[in-house]
Specification:
about 10% strand, HD_assoc_2 (chains A, B, C, D), dGTPase-like (chains A, B, C, D), alpha+beta, four-stranded mixed sheet, homotetramer, Hypothetical protein af1432, about 400 residues, HD domain-containing protein (chains A, B, C, D), globular, HD_domain (chains A, B, C, D), three-stranded antiparallel sheet
Chain lengths: ~400, ~400, ~400, ~400
């Protein structure tokens, strides 16, 4: 423990409290500091100009919420909480995003990388984070990795970091709302924390807390439709992905780039080392794109220019996939001299990994259970009309993205 | 005018309203979009992790406040307001920061550049901004330049953008408070706007609005001491400045950099062109520093590593300049193998351009006048004890900055 | 119009703006001032101690929201808005609650009074309000009455004051949330106002505003379950109603009260005059109850003591009406020496007049329509899963209320 | 201790936490419940319509802040804090306002009562509060009385409840700001609490917390001038005081009131008993005034009507006392048929008991000391220019109050 508690001023939680030296040392590692240069919401800042916050801020927030939940469990002396796992939880909470690369959504789909795998490598390989964790005990880095990768035997520990009620989502809902300015529908974090109960290896919710969970899931629902799936954000992500695909294509076909900084080649070939991974951040990508606006390859130069200067693709909504309209648009794109592989995209937001709530188990995420005073558990959507209505529903409409100047008919 | 008003969701003002096509077009220029890649508070994010907002957000905010002030003047039909200057004011408000480079405070002192000069060049030379403004009228870009450079003949127009009560400060106080999380002492913007009056070529304050101005100046005072002068922020700025000085020194002495992207040389030699200026943003600087962490020059590599990974200089407070302690520290620095030119700094925050309030005229900024119903003007510090107490006071203490591991005795 | 706009500082809307002399004069009538002595949320302050705000504050808020909606319509020049009805709307908004008596919910059910009827009488009879309105035109008081009583021929005017999207609810959701402290799930009023459109005699919602309406209805839903139907509030209302019933019973049976202020008898007999109605407020009732704690009639004295000193009835939840448990409780109540007519109550919150949303027309309240750019209208629950799920659902469970010391088995 | 912590939803502190059965029982006493019927800010609701909150809410808030301060002391294990005094402090915090009568400021000056004396009597005599406290120990009520009356030997205990940095002020600044809507200049309570230190029998402030104290005192300063000394509030208080003076005059001269409820006579004669004191609340006063609007005595009827229906006195500002203008106004008042004893008042707000800060000891209230790491104490205004500027300054101007229709010349 630190001699004196340290605090960070945080706009969402007011203060983040650090009591353990390990946590303090982890925050000061190069790997954690790198997250300051990766935005939490990717390209959303082109839709909501305030959304410029980083994964570093969010990581502190997830840590702080986890700390508060555990503190609630300990203060109340709940016997189902394994008190010896406190530090493990806190470390996993802080480090859960450490493998995220720049503009992850777009880059992962173009280059076939995976941030969860990277997170594990950062914990396991020769990194500062690994060094700090190893001081706790030789197997501590491994344990943190298991928690983050959901293979740790005590499910309750995993579920604080990754479940339908995890600290990760609890923080990002509030933080993204705060920075985008869409912060009306936020929920009462303090109350949410108070109704959580450790129960036979899981975190469940006191029955009287049902409305608190409803409010929380409603916030999530609102954020999905107002922020995460916003078609302008999707447009900028599509351009970015197309741009990365072009870079990969050019690289694999021996194109001579004027500017091609280390370790970009290794990234494309998926043979990067963890030391080099440190160099990869959104500054690296944005500066490269800026230099590429002068490349001879017109597609690359144009896509970079579009992204950096917010000349985004237009979009049209299709209630149902309309093949005729897509064909028509493809013709227009070709006639205007664009390569449709890079300048046309059909998108359906529900492809995204975000989901509001599922009543059944998915990806190892168990549903939310209410726990009544007679000790019975009931899955929440059985009790709440509101939650049942949003549970597992595939919402969203198809959008067609294309350069300005085309007409959607 | 736009057919339909457009809005941006803004976390500080809730919404930014755009009614003029010129404003809309200016926002979409490459020069304005570049401000998304320059942080409003430079290196403050190392002290307050939430301070990651950009000059782009701030510029929209200054525009919005100016729009609200003018709208108040027009709604009330105040005859001292020159209604024909509305669009000019709005454009100047939006564009006032367009010349800011990356990490301006540090880079300007190291490379002898000047963001105000750059703003003027961006308005005058062959830029997209110049093109949009020229559509209003041939002399419109010139007029905007005059307003921003404070040479426009109608002082009231200038004073909305640059005075003790300008929209620039009104926005940054609120916005910086919001993002740092230090948002308790904020003031009532709506009330401030309501007590402003155009009066014989100046903006003055209704006498009954004195307490509103007091609250506003108190906010400023608090922000100076809690945020702008924070010694941790100063430490990161000092490292950055030293790093830029080292780059300049190496460049001028013919050092062969492994990584030296265009147009860095032109920047150091102060012969950059406005097209090239677009490339300069904080991504450019951060990525370069990241690559430089592998340079052979140890001083450069170390300073870059310190900055990017937040291994900042420690600091000690000296109530008065204490030459003996400085000499002692210099010896320690040398003994530890550091070059004191890069690893030791005496700093006094009041050197900074920020000031809370001055009762007399300075830099062409006139003081704040109260206007009573009998038509008399009185300078506000004559009436308010609080404001008198902070007016022109040189506060602050000296700090000594040095690498960790030294002792201040 | 007033020479200079007047403002009231309002904790919810920041400022309430008054531009018309009629509005100013109405606010200063005795009838409006009386609403300062009637709480907006009746007995909810016993559950949420902050809920001490009055119907006066709420009335100003409804006026302000109405003003903002109309101002949006006028600024955009929507042709379906009858601009000549502005003042009529504003007056009706301000005055819509003027007939509310003290603790309306409880007193109306005990004494068979009706606050809507009283509102009409206050507008029609010899009151200050009538006098101010008559200055506008001879038939103006009648018109205001028609708007409030929903018989005014132009439905759009009525619907601003009384519909599923009226200014009344828009204000109370925010205001009650603010004062109870349950203010997380509030909605974005500014956005709600911006998506409203006048359309062929109704107020409808721009299709792209669907999520704004969802957020608003979710707020309402949350407020119903967290605040309006709270069983502790219901308990205090039940005691109050029982107490009023006892007073009526005693009065009609010739009981000699030690304290029986004018015009209580007339109130019970429902033959009160509008001048006397001014005397009736929550001070009148609370003080009478306080004096009655010393009455000889034990039931009256006890119920008054329970109410004033918050010795509320306990309650138990029954998922379904359980006649056996009710009978059992009745026996216990009798054995403990209580009269079950006054000391036992089965309650079902959905009896209350509040409802979240109905997709069909009820009580003349039409549902909410979305309006798309092709001019088509669609009822919102057809489009929104969330809203469909809460539409018209009869939620709630039965509660049994009884004095402390009984056991529910 | 309670088996499970109980919480109250509070709009200012989000939640008030109750852990001790004694506290829970005290909250439920008749004496505490009575405070629900006494407004925190007296007649300020006539200036700020939101200011309708009660002393009950405030009392819970003072308790909660005290709880947080003590909890901070205990968590950090500061040895200068006498841990055995925790419950005593909490009780004193909760009960400190229990003797407040209705509209205390006005009634005390008219009837020569004293709420502090009443608080002591409520603790000492046969009350429910006394009964609950006695269960802790026989001398516990006496100790609570000593703390509130500032005679308890351990000054640190007293100073949490009554000093320049007491929990009383810390709560009311925030709460009054919240309800009036003047809530921009609020301070960071969490930070204030964190910089407090127990030190040799006093509460002092960590030197690095100076700016936190500045912000807090600035909030106080702002609240004084914007809220507490507002001339409209003063006008309503003056009318109320004149009204009470008239009641007293009439009573002592044998006037036969139509309405004169028990125990008003005893109150005027200052021979009331603590049981009867329970009957006295603002409902009692408001209802009596309402009945008195029909009294034959015209002065009494008129003053009651003015107060209840907000027909307040007008006011004019005099920079200095201007005897000529006062004489002139007196003549006008007389000519208009008013008795100047009741219809004319010269007022100077600094007479009020509120003060922002005093650098010396006054009324046993010691100044605020900063405590540096070398263990030295320094009075804060010696270090802070801002605080020095507001310390002990007698601000304010004279106002003259009179009925409408007079002219101030």
């Amino acid at each position: 423990m630190l001699e004196e508690e340290k605090v960070f001023k945080d706009p969402v939680h007011r203060y983040v409290h650090v009591q353990d030296e390990v946590i303090w040392d982890l925050i000061n590692t190069r790997e954690m500091q790198r997250l300051r240069r990766i935005r939490q919401l990717g390209t959303s800042f082109y839709t909501f100009h305030g959304a410029e916050h980083s994964r570093f801020s969010h990581s502190l927030g997830v840590y702080e919420i986890t700390r508060k939940i555990i503190s609630q469990f300990e203060r109340n002396g709940f016997s189902d909480w394994p008190t010896e796992e406190r530090l493990l939880c806190l470390c996993a909470a802080l480090l859960h995003d450490i493998g995220h690369g720049p503009f992850s959504h777009s880059i992962e789909s173009a280059f076939d990388t995976d941030h969860e795998e990277w997170t594990c490598r950062m914990l396991r390989e020769q990194t500062e984070v690994n060094q700090v964790l190893s001081k706790v005990s030789a197997d501590f880095p491994k344990k943190v990795e298991q928690v983050i990768c959901k293979t740790y035997p005590k499910e309750i520990v995993v579920s604080l970091i990754s479940s339908q009620l995890d600290a990760d989502r609890m923080d990002y809902i509030l933080r993204d709302a705060y920075h985008t300015g869409v912060n009306y529908g936020t929920y009462d974090l303090e109350r949410m924390i108070r109704v959580l109960r450790p129960h036979r290896g899981h975190v469940v919710v006191k029955e009287s807390g049902m409305h608190a969970v409803e409010a929380y899931l409603m916030s999530r629902y609102q954020m999905h439709w107002q922020v995460y799936f916003h078609p302008v954000t999707r447009s900028s992500e599509i351009i970015l992905r197309k741009m990365f695909e072009r870079v990969k294509y050019l690289y694999l076909n021996g194109y001579a780039f004027d500017f091609f900084p280390h370790p970009l080649g290794a990234l494309i070939e998926n043979r990067i080392e963890s030391k080099e991974y440190l160099l990869l951040d959104e500054s690296f990508m944005q500066m490269s794109m800026m230099q590429w606006t002068h490349e001879r390859d017109e597609i690359l130069a144009d896509l970079c220019d579009r992204f950096l200067h917010r000349r985004l693709f237009k979009y049209s909504t299709m209630e149902l996939l309309d093949e005729r309209k897509i064909r028509n648009m493809r013709q227009q794109v070709v006639q205007a001299g664009y390569d449709p592989q890079y300048y046309l995209e059909v998108d359906f937001p529900a492809d995204l990994s975000y989901d509001v709530y599922r009543a059944g188990e998915t990806d190892g995420k168990i549903p939310i259970y209410l726990w009544n005073d007679r000790g019975k558990l009931i899955e929440i959507s059985k009790k709440s009309d509101i939650i049942r209505s949003i549970s597992g529903v595939q919402m969203g409409t198809h959008h067609l993205y294309y350069p300005e100047g085309m007409s959607f008919i």
